[in-house]
Amino acid sequence: ANIMVCARVRKHRSMQPDLPRDEAFYANSSKLVVYFSDQAHFSGPKACRVAGMRPRVIKARKIDGNYRLSAEDVQSAIQEDKANGLVPTVLFLTYGTTNTCSFDRPADFESIAREENLWVHVDAAYAG
Description:
Blueprint: H1 2-15, H2 21-24, E1 32-37, H3 43-50, E2 54-58, E3 61-63, E4 66-68, H4 71-83, E5 87-94, H5 110-116, E6 119-123
Parallel strand pairs: 1-2, 1-5, 5-6
Antiparallel strand pairs: 3-4
């Protein structure tokens, strides 16, 4: 949950640059969204909820024999959420999931992360 709180505070401060750091911990985070693969460990969405943000689980696609997130699916989810007044905040990628050993390709998401000012976390269950 610590990573999610850091990402939450970062987003609040990027949206409100004059917001004092300590106040950012108490800002309403109910519209902040974290994007996960359905292959991510359950602790990721759980940490997201503990931090007061919304988990958005996206079905992984089988690509090259590996279950991974598609950049197009993430972009589509982001556009849908923004249209509904939500705020994209974190992209939670995986590298070696515990159930299928799948991994996402961080380079596939670089432009999305930059355009949307997303905190990118790579959960490395098998890679340490």
